[in-house]
Write a structure and sequence with these properties.
Helix content: 10-25%
Largest sheet: 50 strands, mixed
Shape: elongated
Distance between the termini: 138 Å
Radius of gyration: 49 Å
Structural class: alpha+beta
Mean pLDDT: 75
Low-confidence stretches: 98-136, 292-350, 359-387, 555-573, 980-1053, 1254-1312, 1429-1438, 1475-1492, 1533-1544, 1574-1579, 1658-1663, 1768-1775
Number of strands: 54
Length: 1775
């Protein structure tokens, strides 16, 4: 009887899955109680269809199937089904099989899939029923059947699964798995579902599960086995089913939970890429990216949760897959990242697949149950239940007490015999240990899904050695604390078993106490219960909660009908979906040292080392042009609710310690990670010794929180919103992905690890600060291209305040730590750090230092930056509130307080500071509402070159800044670690490098220093030398062990500075050519005190002007201070109207610039530039009175067609500057102060350069040809390769000379003479990339010098120099630079004032020192004896010398003085200056065989012409003025000068160094008056001559002699060769015989009366100010008094001759030096003297001398008055 009911059930199961069975055989043997079936083939298609897996079965066998039915004890003993050895091989489905069956329902959404599967199950059941016995069983039979089915035992022995894909073979073997029913104590028992509890419990035990991952070759064979991923792991799974009533087919609550005591995973470097590949497969399947699941939403869970939920239900065999994947997830942290970033809105996922399995697989009872119920009530076959079945609550959990993941590196080992197979030896390098892991999933239908996971604690350890460095081998005996580089959370011992709370393994859980469990299935309540705090309390290290809910807003009906296809926009309103992920990471400590960084990067490099194709390619966005506009109802529905996904990540208390790199092999790893494949052999390094003490940088962060939200259905939302004309802000807001990051309590400090393995307390470098960042990114931007106002990206950054503080020693240590990571030291271990430095930083507690170091502290406040980009422009705007920097000079140990010295303060109110009177007025304190220091807005078009859009815009304003350049800054900068004892030092140098190694040090250095040079690098050294850049001098000096470095003389290595400059200018031009610019900079005031200015406690700390003012008024010891008040600057481009500098971005300006170059001219105005000095308490003196200027800058550019592929721009820059009058004042104390300040700065700079503290600013040292005068011969290391412009001699040689056996036809060399200035005029700007033309206009320059008159106490002298109408122009081209300067008039007067009272009065001799006007009587009459009036006495004047002729041509009429300076490149101008063109080619290279072009690089020329002027010479006055510029330094012991070891060069002036000089002046008169004191006796004018007059008719000078001197030649060979080549007279040639000719014409010396010469009326006697003189000028009055003026003009001065009308010609020839290279391979040069100096003086006319006794007496008196004054004054000067 029973057989007829039980047999069909068993038959239907066996028959459905196994091929070729005869039901009759099976039935017969079943009735016998035992069935044994052997070698069975599985029906693979049925399995695939039933399981709906994305895999196909390649094969499936069961070796033996036993079924044991205890017919006699069916009610008390279980039916046992045993499977011995079941083997399946799977592979991924191909796209070709992508039909309806293989991929599940491809076009429907989840609910319909579920329904179709349910209906399929029903039809299946009905078929079975109809084939069964028609007699319906009575009720007790039904309950018996239920008991039988509920107690079936299934045993699987030796389950073998294999998955193959590409070259990956994943194999799983479980020795035995057993499933049986248990009682409430989880012991094996025969149970039934009883009335009150309605509970069924089962246990599945797995023993010895092994998972392997191997690589197969092309033929499919595995060559050698890798270590198993998981080896012999056993675990237990508990299942707990709760039913609503006895007749329920599906349990209402399903709880499935697995516990693993210890999970040990091992991953080798070859398995890692394969494992990542399998995880990616899981993710791709989860998101449906492989099969063509269409656009429906799928919940985002972590891969672990998903795997668990599915696999647990799917049955025993995949249990191990979970753990494999689970651990891999931690092992490969980025998969989780990937999961969170994935957009789940594409592809139908596996969750719906899991649901389809719930009814089929949950329990064996359901089907039997339903079958018999239907059999009983035959009427109800078609409608077993009128309402839709309620979804069960499913809870799945996975618990692991301890998990470890070990990462191993493998290496091949060849056996000794030829035939034996290869063996692989693996070595563990990295281990991850994790305690108390939990993964729990709770779901109910499609409405609620929640996954929580967490673990209590974890840590990561370094093992063995890495890349040949044996840092953690057993022999090193290092503790586990040193090996552990990452730890997070707590240990299980301290935390307890919280991770098992409420699980089936927790004896306190409701299920284990007979209570029905309550589940929270409501989103709000869930969030209240499971907060981040609760998660951290339960787990400690990591907690994640992922929640997905779906609420149906429009009421009734089953879920399945509600959840209709979400593709249609109108249904978006009815279903409210929500997805939140919350992650919390507990307190963690990370240590980045060499061992850990190399291991982790090695792992990353191994993970990237594969050639797998990605599973899914990113789908390119295609904009659907024909999309329909959404209706109003749809828009309203969207406005009401838009589903989003939210991710919140919180990281609590993190400590990161970055130590000095003990070894650095990153050069071998980083290229692989960055994608450039190269494998260098691993070197076997010397024995590893840990470095102690090991300095480190420690970073601590209190909390980091990150929020990320993104729309769930961007694919439907964005097209809908982007098609609206005016979408609301809310809709637009939801079309973005948003990200908020907040960082709290970030701080950093320096610490050091001692030999005990503990860190000393950190010395703070960055005190705690917080910051925040917000960003949003537009989804599917291609839909928004036509909406330029919609930003595609927007970021906001806020930094309330940030402070940095460090002593110099700390910055040096930071630099060392950084260098140890950036400079590859090879495998050799790094060198110990200077102990003195560490002592300076880490002092033992309680030990006071002898001289504590100053600390520099800088802070910035309120930084806000905003970035925004649209399809047309990118913009940035921002503000910075303030900046402060100060130095803290610590008090000495003798109780002095710490001093605070402010260095920078901004914003500071500097508007009044340009005049020193602010010191005496009251200053308002800086208010809290002061404007931000910097505000700016920049807007740049996306495509710079497109002409459709306007150019860039830059608006900026900068408030005033006060800077105090305090001497303490130099002490800070020059701080060096104190030296230890000498012995220690010597020991260290043998194996160490001092700390201050400049960063230019390369590998060779370390090699020579380290222990044993490595084999591989030995061979590389030659090439290493070749490519090493040239060392600058500082680098070689600071090295302890110097290495010879061969410098390759290849000019290709350097792009010359000019070339680089040109490239840079081209880049700048692209940015500037269409730039709308508006810049405002308030004045910046710089104070240079002589000694430290500490901030007094009475004023606001850090207020620099306040500090200076306080010292100025209260301190007698106020140090001398120089104050430079930089000007206020305003720059505005053409046509721009003023705007606020801070704009809402993106913005539009009124007049955009469309054409290139239209932004010019820029108007630049500067105002209120001044310099003054504070010379102690209440003494302020101006140096430069406030001054301003306006200037106009214009740039034009045209493209040059160059022969190369790229076209270059050629620029013409024009700058016109109009300056206001400049007034300078100067006195001796000011000069003294400036000298002292310059001296201290110079000293500091010299020391910095000597120590190589700062890197050399130029990597390409200026090419120095030949030793500098007075410098030692430079070492070969420091000599640069010659500049490209000087080392290509071929540039000089135009053509080879034909018939060059020179005939000396020396025609007149000056037949076609012209100046360099005239020649360069016609060069023009054609050659170059850039030419600059500047013009300066200056109405007046006044210089006032104040001095004490030595004789009379308290009398002050003031000398006033005035230059009027200055104009200068500068023309800079590629090949020449030209400066022209003109001065309208130039006068020097002097005044005196006694005792500082009353007005200034004119000094001696009418106060005149130099005058270019007719202030002194011009009409001098020479009295000469009749007999001597010879008509030919002026003979020499008839032939004006050449200089005069030349200058007349080149100088137009001008004011008093005209000066032109020209500097040209010799090579370019030489052929223009020589008279015969073919001389170009003549060069001495053939003689010298040298490589260096020895002609000077540049030619200089000076042209000077002047109008008549008078000079009154009074030596005492000159002496007094000179004393102003004498400065004494405070006395210090003089250091002994080291001899340079090279004789000084005797020839300072040579033809190479002197410029070509042309001078032409008109009449010059020099007066030597005798003292004025005794001139007026009794009021009667004296008629005694008292003034010596020297009058020179003209002065002319030219660099060519009419009658050249013959030279005394020392090196005849060189001279003769040059003579033969005809290059002796060519300016700028290698051997140039340049001779200067000076003509002084019609000189007269005589004596006269001062009264007749002196100025007629003393105008403006009342004061110094010449302004008053101008105010006296009244033309009407003067015309009216014309007769007196005429009388004044007729006044004559009689000159008694001493020497009359003679002329002098001086010919001077400087020495000729020839520069020769010592040897071809040595860049050193030597200088050969060819000729010495020669000088010749000729008087070209007769000399007539007349002398009277009176004149002799006058001469003697003059000598006495002028010379004796000097002698008296001298001793005082030299004190």
């Amino acid at each position: 009887m029973l057989e007829s009911y039980v047999t069909p059930i068993l038959m239907s199961y066996v028959n459905r899955y196994i091929k070729n069975l005869k039901p009759s055989d099976l039935q017969l043997s079943l009735w016998g109680g035992d069935v044994v079936l052997s070698k069975l083939e599985l029906k693979l298609d049925v399995l695939e269809q039933e399981l709906k897996l994305p895999f196909t079965f390649l094969s499936g066998h069961i070796h033996e199937l036993r079924i044991h039915v205890p017919w006699t004890k069916l009610g008390s003993e279980p039916v046992v089904i045993t499977i011995n050895t079941m083997e399946c091989i799977l592979k991924l489905k191909d796209d070709t099989q992508d039909d309806h069956e293989s991929c599940g329902s491809s076009s429907t959404n989840r609910s319909t899939t579920t329904e179709s599967i349910k209906s399929l199950a029903k039809t299946r059941r009905i078929q079975q029923v109809t084939s069964a016995d028609p007699d319906l069983p009575p009720g007790y039979v039904q309950s018996l059947i239920r008991r039988v089915v509920n107690n079936v035992n299934i045993v699987v022995n030796n389950l073998i699964l294999k998955y193959v894909e590409d070259d990956i073979v994943l194999s799983v073997n479980i020795t035995s798995a057993e499933c049986y029913t248990v009682d409430e104590f989880w012991d094996r028992a025969f149970m039934d579902i009883l009335a009150p509890e309605l509970v069924l419990r089962k246990v599945i035990n797995f023993s010895d599960c092994t998972v392997c991952l191997d690589k197969r070759n092309a033929s499919g064979k595995i060559e050698f086995y890798q270590d198993p991923l998981l080896y012999k792991c056993s675990f237990c799974t508990r299942l707990h089913f709760t039913y609503d009533n006895l007749n329920s087919k599906i349990p209402s609550i399903i709880k499935i939970q697995a516990l693993v005591e210890s999970l040990k995973l091992s991953i080798t470097d070859q398995q890692l890429p394969m494992l990542i590949r399998i995880i990616q497969l899981g993710i791709a399947l989860y998101y449906g990216e492989i099969c063509s699941y269409k656009d429906t939403e799928v919940e985002e869970t972590s891969s672990t949760a998903k795997d668990t939920s599915i696999i647990q239900m799917a049955g025993a065999e995949s249990e191990t897959g979970i753990q494999g994947q689970h651990a891999a997830q931690y092992q490969n942290a980025d998969t989780q990242q990937q999961l969170q970033q994935q957009d789940g809105d594409d592809g139908q996922g596996w969750v719906s697949w899991a649901w389809s399995l719930v009814p089929a697989l949950v329990s064996y009872s359901e089907e039997g149950d339903e079958t018999y119920e239907i059999d009983e009530n035959g009427m109800k076959i078609n409608c077993p239940r009128s309402s839709a079945p309620k979804d069960p609550v499913v809870s799945v959990g996975f618990y692991c007490t301890k998990a470890t993941v070990t990462f191993k590196l493998t290496e091949m080992q060849m056996e000794s015999s030829y035939y034996s197979p290869q063996k692989v030896k693996s070595k563990e390098v990295l281990c991850w240990e994790q305690e108390g892991t939990t993964v729990e999933v709770l779901m109910m239908g499609e409405l609620f899904f929640d996954c929580q996971m967490g673990f209590v604690g974890c840590k990561a350890l370094c093992l063995k050695g890495i890349m040949g460095v044996k840092d953690f081998e057993e022999t090193t005996n290092r503790s586990e604390t040193e090996a552990c580089f990452f730890s997070c959370g707590e240990s299980l011992n301290s935390k307890g078993l919280t991770y098992l709370t409420n699980s089936l393994f927790d004896y306190r859980s409701p299920e284990n106490n007979g209570v029905r469990a309550e589940f929270i299935l409501d989103a709000a309540q869930h969030k209240e219960t499971y907060t981040e705090i609760a998660g951290v309390q339960r787990f400690g290290a990591f907690y994640m909660d992922y929640l997905y809910t779906m609420e149906c807003s429009s009421g009734k009906g089953s879920v399945q009908q509600q959840d209709v296809s979400l593709n249609k926009n109108e249904d978006l309103g009815s279903v409210h979906e929500m997805s939140t992920k919350r992650l919390v990471v507990g307190p963690m400590e990370v240590r980045l040292d060499s061992s850990s960084v190399h291991r982790v990067l090695k792992m990353v490099a191994c993970g990237l080392d594969h050639e797998y194709e990605p599973y899914s390619k990113p789908i390119s966005e295609t904009v659907d042009e024909s999309r329909t506009l959404p209706s109003q109802e749809e828009v309203a529905a969207l406005e009401e609710y838009i589903p989003t996904r939210l991710t919140c990540i919180t990281v609590l208390k993190t400590t990161i310690t970055i130590t000095l790199a003990e070894f650095n092999l990153l050069d071998n790893l980083l290229p692989i990670i960055l994608g450039q494949k190269n494998s260098t052999p691993v070197l076997n390094a010397p024995h590893f010794h840990p470095l102690r003490p090991l300095p480190a940088l420690r970073i601590q962060v209190d909390k980091v929180s990150l929020e990320h939200s993104v729309p769930m259905y961007a694919g439907q939302l964005v097209p809908a919103v982007s098609s609206l004309n005016q979408p609301s802000d809310n809709l637009l807001h939801n079309c973005y992905a948003h990200c908020y990051v907040k960082i709290f309590g970030f701080q950093a400090g320096l610490t050091s690890l001692d030999s005990g393995g503990s860190f000393c307390p950190p010395a703070p470098v960055i005190p705690p600060f917080s910051t925040a960042f917000y960003g949003k990114l537009l989804r599917l931007p291609s839909y928004w291209v036509k909406r330029p106002f919609v930003p595609t990206t927007e970021c906001i950054f806020e930094l309330p305040s940030l402070t940095l503080q460090a002593t110099r020693a700390q910055t040096l240590l930071l630099q060392t730590i950084l260098q140890s990571w950036t400079h590859n030291t090879g495998a050799s271990v790094s060198l110990p750090v200077d102990e003195a430095l560490l002592k300076d930083i880490f002092r033992p507690l309680g030990v006071k230092s002898q001289n504590p170091l100053p600390t520099l502290e800088g802070s910035i406040q309120n930084v806000e930056l905003k970035y925004c980009s649209t399809s047309l422009v990118k913009c940035v705007s921002g503000t910075m509130g303030s900046i402060k920097a100060c130095a803290k000079a610590p008090g000495r140990s003798d109780g002095m307080k710490e001093k605070l010295i402010p260095l920078i303060q901004g914003p500071s109110d500097t508007r009044e500071l340009h005049k020193s009177k602010w010191l005496n007025e009251s200053r308002k304190p800086v208010s809290l509402f002061a404007p931000d220091l910097i505000t700016f807005t920049i807007q740049i078009p996306q495509q710079m070159d497109s002409y459709h859009n306007s150019g860039a815009v830059l608006l900026a304003s900068l408030q005033g800044i006060a800077v105090n350049v305090d001497p303490i800054f130099y002490t800070w900068l020059l701080q060096q670690p104190q030296k230890g004892n000498v012995k220690q030092r010597q020991q260290q140098t043998s194996g160490a490098i001092q700390l201050v190694i400049p960063t230019t040090r390369k590998k060779e250095d370390e090699l020579s220093v380290g222990s044993t040079p490595l084999a591989m690098q030995q061979s590389n050294q030659a090439s290493e030398y070749a490519s090493s850049p040239v060392k600058t001098k500082t680098a070689t000096e600071s090295r302890l062990l110097s290495v010879p470095i061969k410098v390759m003389q290849s000019s290709e290595e350097w792009s010359s500075p000019e070339e680089r400059m040109k490239e840079y200018i081209g880049l700048v031009w692209d940015a500037v050519k269409r730039l709308t610019l508006q810049l405002e900079v308030q004045s910046c005031c710089v104070f240079f005190p002589n000694e430290s200015l500490a901030s007094p406690s009475t004023i606001v700390a850090g207020d620099i002007p306040g500090t200076v003012r306080n010292w100025y008024h209260t301190e007698a010891s106020m140090p001398g201070t120089l104050v430079i008040c930089l000007p206020q600057i305003k720059v505005i481009s053409a046509g721009h109207k003023y705007m606020e500098p801070l704009q809402e971005i993106p913005f539009v300006i009124s007049r955009p610039i469309l054409e290139e170059g239209d932004a010019f001219p820029w108007t630049i105005s500067l105002s209120q530039f001044s310099v003054y000095t504070l010379l102690g308490q209440l003494r302020a003196c101006n140096l430069i009175e406030p001054l301003g200027c306006t200037s106009t800058l214009a740039i034009t550019s045209h493209k040059l067609q160059t022969p190369g592929p790229e076209t270059r721009h050629s620029f013409v820059v024009c700058l016109h500057v109009d300056l206001e009058s400049l007034e300078m004042k100067c006195s001796n104390p000011q000069v003294q102060l400036l000298y002292e300040l310059a001296h201290s700065m110079n000293n500091a700079w010299d020391k910095i350069q000597k120590k190589g503290i700062l890197r050399q600013s130029t990597t390409h040292p200026e090419s120095v040809l030949g030793p500098m005068p007075g410098s030692p011969v430079r070492s070969s290391v420091s000599t640069a390769p010659p500049d490209a412009s000087t080392c290509s001699p071929s540039a000089d040689i135009g053509t080879t000379t034909e018939g060059d056996s020179v005939q000396m036809v020396d025609e007149n060399p000056f037949s076609d003479s012209s100046t360099l200035e005239q020649k360069t005029n016609n060069i023009g700007g054609t050659t170059g990339c850039i030419s600059l033309w500047m013009q300066w206009m200056l109405p007046k320059v006044t210089v006032k010098l104040f001095a004490q008159e030595p004789g009379s106490k308290g009398t002050e002298i003031c000398v006033v120099g005035e230059l009027e109408d200055l104009s200068a122009s500068v023309d800079i081209q590629d090949v020449y630079t030209k400066v022209k300067c003109k001065v309208g008039s130039f006068n020097i007067d002097h005044y005196k004032n006694s005792l500082g009272e009353g007005p200034w009065s004119l000094g001696h001799f009418g106060g005149v020192v130099l005058s270019c006007t007719d202030k002194l009587n011009r009409r001098t009459l020479l009295v000469r004896p009749l007999s001597k009036q010879d008509p030919f006495s002026h003979f020499s004047g008839f032939f004006p010398p050449m200089a005069a002729k030349l200058l007349e041509g080149s100088h137009q009429q001008h004011g008093f003085l005209s000066l032109t300076y020209t500097k040209a490149v010799t090579r370019n101008v030489r052929h223009k200056l020589t008279s015969r063109p073919e001389r170009v080619s003549r060069s001495l290279h053939r003689v010298t065989e040298g490589v260096v072009d020895s002609s000077p690089q540049y030619l200089h020329e000076i042209l000077l012409s002047a109008q008549p002027f008078d000079v009154v010479l009074s030596f005492p006055l000159i002496h007094n003025v000179a004393k102003i510029f004498q400065a004494k330094l405070p006395k210090k012991p003089k250091a002994k000068r080291k001899s340079t070891g090279q004789p000084m060069r005797a020839y300072g002036l040579t033809s190479r160094e002197l410029p070509l000089i042309y001078i032409n002046t008109s009449v010059v008169r020099v007066f030597f008056p005798k003292g004025e004191d005794e001139q007026h006796e009794g009021g009667a004018p004296q008629m005694k001559e008292d003034t010596l007059v020297l009058k020179i008719g003209s002065v002319c000078m030219a660099p060519q002699a009419d009658n050249p001197l013959g030279r005394t030649v020392l090196r005849k060979d060189i001279y003769q060769r040059a003579l033969n080549l005809g290059i002796l007279r060519d300016p700028g040639s290698e051997v140039e015989d340049r001779q200067y000719q000076i003509d002084l014409q019609s000189i007269t010396i005589g004596t006269a009366l001062w009264d007749q010469l002196k100025p007629e009326k003393e105008v403006g006697k009342g004061g110094l100010c010449t302004e008053s003189e101008r105010n006296y000028q009244n033309p009407a009055l003067e015309w009216n008094m014309a007769s007196s003026i005429r009388r004044h003009q007729e006044r004559r001065a009689i000159l008694t001759p001493v020497l009359t009308d003679f002329s002098v010609r001086v010919t001077a020839a400087p020495a000729i030096l020839f520069t020769k290279q010592i040897s071809p391979e040595n860049a050193q040069t030597e200088e050969i003297v060819v000729c010495g100096h020669s000088l010749e003086v000729n008087v070209t006319t007769n000399l007539d001398l007349f002398l009277s006794v009176a004149q002799v007496q006058l001469l003697q008196e003059l000598v006495q008055a002028n010379m004796l004054g000097l002698e008296l004054a001298d001793p005082t000067a030299e004190e």
